Amino acid sequence: MATWFSYEYCTDLGATREFYGELLGLRQIWDEVDGVAFEHDSVQLSFQRLESLERPSGWAFQPGWGHGQLADAPATEDVRSISVALAPAAFRSAVERLRAAGVEALRPEPFWVGYWSFVVKDPDGRTVELSDAGTSGP
């Protein structure tokens, strides 16, 4: 199995650990003074800590939204985002944990865009779309 790597930045390692590890349920694979990494299937998602980052003021563009699947799509910015496909039970659990934690969400409930989607912001304001990898219809 090939591994894909994504290298991102964050300003608060503790908040990043909690968001991606505890709330999303990704497996933490290393933790260092200025960085942390998670693994999900064949993807390693790594974060290096910086003193400051420019925080997006809105939501990142998601391709499906612009093609009519989300009729009331918000105005978007050209900023980075992350998409994470989860198994159905993991998706439902992550949504419950994110909602209970009061994480900023695009909509209060998952919504259908050809698959079930739940879109939130991580601690640095990055748009993160969770999708239910097992869905076949609403």
Keyword list:
138 residues; alpha/beta; 2,3-Dihydroxybiphenyl 1,2-Dioxygenase, domain 1; four-stranded mixed β-sheet; 2 helices
Structural description of this entry:
The chain has 138 residues and is an alpha/beta fold. The chain has a single domain (4-50, 60-132), classed as 2,3-Dihydroxybiphenyl 1,2-Dioxygenase, domain 1 (Roll), CATH 3.10.180. 18% of the residues lie in helices and 36% in strands. The strands form three sheets. It has a four-stranded mixed sheet with strand order 1-4-3-2, covered by helices on one side. The protein is globular, with a radius of gyration of 15 Å.
Task: Look at the structure and give the CATH class.
Answer: Alpha Beta
Shape: globular
Question: Residue ranges: pLDDT <50 for 5 or more in a row?
Answer: none
* Biggest sheet details: 4 strands, mixed
**Second-tier CATH architecture:** Roll
CATH-wise, what's the superfamily?
2,3-Dihydroxybiphenyl 1,2-Dioxygenase, domain 1
Helix-and-strand structural type = alpha/beta
Number of helical regions:
2
Q: What is the number of beta strands?
A: 10
Strand content: 35-45%
How many domain regions?
1
Q: What Rg, in angstroms, do the CA atoms define?
A: 15 Å
- How helical, in percent, are the residues? 10-25%
Domain VOC: 1-133
Protein name: Catechol 2,3-dioxygenase-like lactoylglutathione lyase family enzyme
GO molecular function: dioxygenase activity; lyase activity
Pfam family, one: Glyoxalase
